[in-house]
């Protein structure tokens, strides 16, 4: 689960990481633009008053009491480039900024109005899981505010890495060493080491897959402030992390949201072939094979494991795409092939899909699955690569 910026910053603040003072403005469905402007302007006035009093408990009077930043609360990256983050020098300008953001993306349901911070420099800090080494990986850079992938390619020497053994946990010398590696010194280095420790605590206690601060501001007075937050919670831990609920704002499309509510892993793309596969590894492999054959993927959907009886719902989700063909590939062991085949046949009979279906159903009770498909008039393929080539050819109009 990807948390929105304001949710991540609330978690950071609880852990002792300084965040700018802010107000959340919800976008009411059917609300007027005038009402949105007024509520956003009022939020900016409140922040200005708090900045004057220095009573916000976060960055306080160090913030620019004459300006705010208005940010769309969405989980997609590149908000600045997309025009979803705007600065404002007055409450009235903040209201206008809110309206401008909504005109860019009408699906935005919340705005974060945040005090401006006097910035001297920007850092990068993140913690994630490094599966090959079975360790946690801390990445840090003295060049914040940019995509870490780009930075790693263009200036890899600027990205510092620290591996943490989960059994021993983060050691104090690792946090201090990372600060010095970034060229920090004095009180700034001490603050940075504390932020690393606090972010690590967030990462562990919240069952996170990723905890990132980018940028981490160093203010003109020398304080460290989280300028943004990215916190991704492992979906398998949501029974423990009960304070986080799945909401529409956390997903780019209605289909992704609907799939999340069903517990079906789903990722939206813009290609021609809808993937409906059983097993995350198999789905990823089929994705790669489609690309290798010159095709494009419309969506990634994995209905294996506990979802292998959800063929009908999975097909419904695929049909919401403007794809040209649905490619179904499974290899059932515990998830039985015959059960999935029965579900596929029932789904086709009930939903009457308006596009071709290519199937390759393998695994436990495969013979029964094959017969079920043939009895329904569906010719099953028994080779994954052949199924991929067939789907790509159909998508390209080279065969029916």
Total count of strands: 15
Q: Strand share of the residues? A: 25-35%
Bulk shape:
globular
C-alpha end-to-end distance? 39 Å
Structural class: alpha+beta
Major sheet summary line: 6 strands, antiparallel
Provide a count of the helices: 12
The CATH topology of the largest domain turns out to be Rossmann fold
The chain-level mean pLDDT equals 91
CATH superfamily membership of the largest domain: Succinyl-CoA synthetase domains
Order of helices and strands: HEHEEHEEEHEHHEEEHEEHEHEHEHH
Structurally, the number of domains stands at 3
Q: Which CATH class of the largest domain is shown? A: Alpha Beta
Which architecture of the largest domain per CATH?
3-Layer(aba) Sandwich
Low-confidence blocks of residues = 53-61
Helical content class: 25-40%
């Amino acid at each position: 689960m990807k948390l929105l910026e304001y949710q991540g910053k609330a978690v950071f603040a609880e852990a002792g990481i300084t965040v700018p003072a802010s107000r959340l403005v919800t976008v009411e469905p059917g609300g007027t633009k005038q009402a949105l402007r007024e509520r956003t302007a009022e939020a900016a006035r409140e922040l200005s008053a708090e900045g004057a009093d220095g009573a916000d408990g976060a960055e306080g009077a160090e913030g620019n009491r004459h300006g705010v930043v208005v940010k769309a609360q969405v989980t997609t990256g590149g908000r600045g480039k997309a025009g979803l983050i705007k600065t404002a020098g007055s409450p009235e300008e903040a209201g206008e900024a809110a309206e401008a953001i909504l005109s860019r993306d009408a699906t935005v349901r919340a705005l974060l109005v945040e005090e401006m911070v006097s910035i001297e420099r920007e850092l990068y800090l993140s913690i994630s899981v490094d599966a090959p080494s079975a360790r946690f990986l801390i990445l840090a850079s003295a060049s914040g505010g940019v995509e870490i992938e780009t930075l790693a390619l263009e200036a890899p020497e600027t990205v510092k890495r620290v591996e943490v053994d989960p059994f021993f946990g983060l050691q104090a010398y690792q946090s201090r060493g990372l600060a010095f590696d970034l060229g920090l010194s004095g009180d700034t280095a001490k603050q940075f080491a504390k932020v690393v420790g606090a972010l690590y605590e967030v990462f562990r206690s919240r069952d996170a897959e990723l905890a990132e601060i980018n940028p981490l501001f160093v203010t003109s007075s020398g304080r460290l402030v989280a300028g943004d937050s990215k916190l991704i919670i492992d979906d398998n831990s949501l029974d423990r992390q009960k304070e986080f609920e799945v909401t529409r704002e956390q997903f780019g499309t209605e289909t992704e949201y609907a799939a999340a509510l069903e517990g079906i892993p789903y990722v939206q793309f813009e290609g021609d072939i809808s993937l409906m596969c059983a097993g995350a590894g198999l789905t990823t492999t089929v994705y790669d094979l489609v690309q290798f054959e010159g095709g494009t993927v419309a969506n990634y959907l994995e209905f294996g494991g506990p979802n292998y009886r959800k063929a009908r719902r999975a097909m419904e989700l695929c049909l919401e795409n403007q794809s040209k063909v649905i490619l179904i590939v499974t290899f059932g062991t515990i998830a039985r092939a015959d059960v999935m085949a029965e579900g596929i046949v029932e789904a086709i009979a009930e939903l009457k899909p308006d596009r071709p279906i290519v199937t390759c159903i393998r695994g436990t009770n495969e013979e029964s699955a094959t017969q079920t498909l043939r009895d329904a008039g569906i010719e099953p393929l028994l080779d994954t690569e052949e199924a991929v080539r067939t789907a790509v050819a159909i998508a390209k109009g080279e065969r029916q």
